Amino acid sequence: MNNKETVLIVGAGPAGIFTALELRRRGFTGPITLCEKGNSVETRSCPKAKTGKCMNCQPNCHITTGFSGAGAFSDGKLSLSYEVGGDLPQLVGENLVQDTIAYADRIYLEFGADTHIEGVSDPEKVRDIRLRAIQAGLKLVDCPIRHMGTEKAQNIYYGIEQWLIENGVEILFRHECVDLILDGERCLGAVVRNRDREFEIRADHTVVATGRRGADWLEKLCAEHGIAHQPGTVDIGVRVEVRNEVMETVNEVLYESKLIGYPEPFRNKVRTFCQNPGGFVAQENYDDGLAVVNGHSFKEKKSENTNLAILCSHNFSVPFNQPIAYAQKVGELTNMLGNGQILVQRFGDILNGKRTWDKELARSNVRPTLPDAVAGDITAAMPYRAMLNILNFIKAVDMVVPGFAAYETLLYSPDLKFYSNRIRMDEHFTTNIANLHCLGDSSGWTRGLMMSSVMGVLMARELTREQ
User: Fold this and answer.
1) Cα–Cα distance between 368 and 371 in angstroms, integer?
2) In 3D, which of 258, 313, 250, 235 has the Cα closest to residue 138?
3) What CA–CA distances, in Å, run from 16 to 22, 336, 457?
4) pTM, two decimal places
5) Would you say 283 and 294 are in contact if contact means Cβ atoms under 8 Å apart?
6) 319 upstream amide cis, omega within 30 of 0
7) Is residue 73 within 8 Å of residue 63, measured between CB atoms?
8) Residues 136, 394: Cα–Cα separation, whole Å
9) Within 13 Å and on the Cβ side, how many CA atoms surround 445?
10) Given phi > 0 = left and psi -120 to 50 = alpha, else beta, which region is 448?
11) How far is CA 223 from the centre of its chain?
């Protein structure tokens, strides 16, 4: 690619951001357009902080959409090991990914990330936790973590946003990509919409990096335009909340315990994800009003609880090939039971075959940090296979973290991860459509901030390889 060619990036999440940033850092001077359906990071704000309840912001949820994607309002954890964050190492190699993690991490530090790394201070205690995990039939993946924090992450991404603008990257906020422009098996750009106006943006290279929020949209484009892909894994689960005292040892030693198991009788993969010590459970809204649960962790503001996701992986085979739609249906049914809100239920109530009532939550040791969650019965909507896997996994975790499977432990639903549409690409991120590249969580190859950032860096290096 030469400096006269144009690059269009669809989606301003970490993958898209780091593609643009690395292009400029490598001396590419050609036009770069970054198209984002949401707002700039400094104008993103969730009204729930003032109203106390989700306001279903239109046209887009401010938590999931905008510059830096869900990353600006997540807990801001950067996983510093190639073992965490998806399957990109299978595509380009473990050593390259690990080296690029170190490179991307230095960029985050340049823009103000905390220099402290969690999970590396006491290897002997890590060994003890791993031993308990082995005895419980679980695998511990201890990963060094740089915790930016929700409020700090917003400042860091604001700094990156301003750097991109100052270095000539055109960022089109509130511009939604509605289609790709194809000429046979070659991509020529995209059609975007700003309010009621649609227009074309032509480009020599088009990079689609629409994140988890755009996974469903990208899957539809793949079917429509013949972009080679395959149904992958979809994660269906719950977000668990316990008192900090229960997780104290793990929080202090590892900050985030990544545990993986294959509980009987089905032996599906079940894992913990996105642990937030002293954090807060949060609601995110997706297209068509789908409400899903997530978790945040701030650097300064702390709660008395720790929350984390427990996710059950599902892989479907012929004739079914719509795993995202399947997960959405599970979420819609759960939302129906909660009248559009997140459902919460105590672990012990599930085992006793009863729903949870508000008055029971009010007198429990574990008080919900999501105040507008609706007490009810998540088992009435959760598929049997997933629910049983999750319950047995929680019992196993209790052997690692005593008290985790207490009666008052809270389970919020639905927690859904839409990673399932895996784009077929080679190690140069080349799809079967010439000049079209797909990155980040929507591509099915990454999960999380760091691995998406790494994929963006590698994409930019591929684009400038012949420069």
Assistant:
1) 6
2) 258
3) 10, 34, 9
4) 0.86
5) yes
6) yes
7) yes
8) 11
9) 29
10) left
11) 23
The tokens for 267 are: 């032996």
Short-list 322, 312, 324, 318, CA closest to 268: 312
Tokens for 444?
């099915």
Tell me the C-alpha distance between 91 and 68, whole Å: 24
The answer to whether the beta carbons of residues 26 and 464 sit under 8 Å apart is yes
Query: Three-state SS string across 33-76, please?
Result: EEEECCCCHHHCCCCHHHHCCCCCCCCCCCCCCCCCHHHHHCCC
* Cα–Cα dist 356/368, whole Å: 13
For the record, the structure tokens of 219 come out as 């899957």
Residue type, 349: D
pLDDT in tens, 95-140: 999 999 999 999 999 999 999 999 888 999 999 999 999 999 999 9
**pLDDT, tens digit, 9 for 90 and up, residues 378-415:** 999 999 999 999 999 999 999 999 999 999 999 999 99
Burial class, 359, CB count within 10 angstroms (exposed 0-12 / middle 13-18 / buried 19+):
exposed
CA dist 82 and 359 (Å) reads: 45
Residue whose pair of structure tokens reads 């912001």 in the numeric block: 57
CA distance 440 to 16: 8
Tokens matching residue 78: 């950067």
Amino acid type, 191: V
- The helix (run of H) or strand (run of E) holding residue 361 is helix 358-362
Backbone angles phi, psi at 286, to 5 degrees: -105, -175
Asked if 240 and 234 touch (Cβ cutoff 8 Å), the reply is no
Residues in the chain: 467
CB 210 within 8 A of CB 10: yes
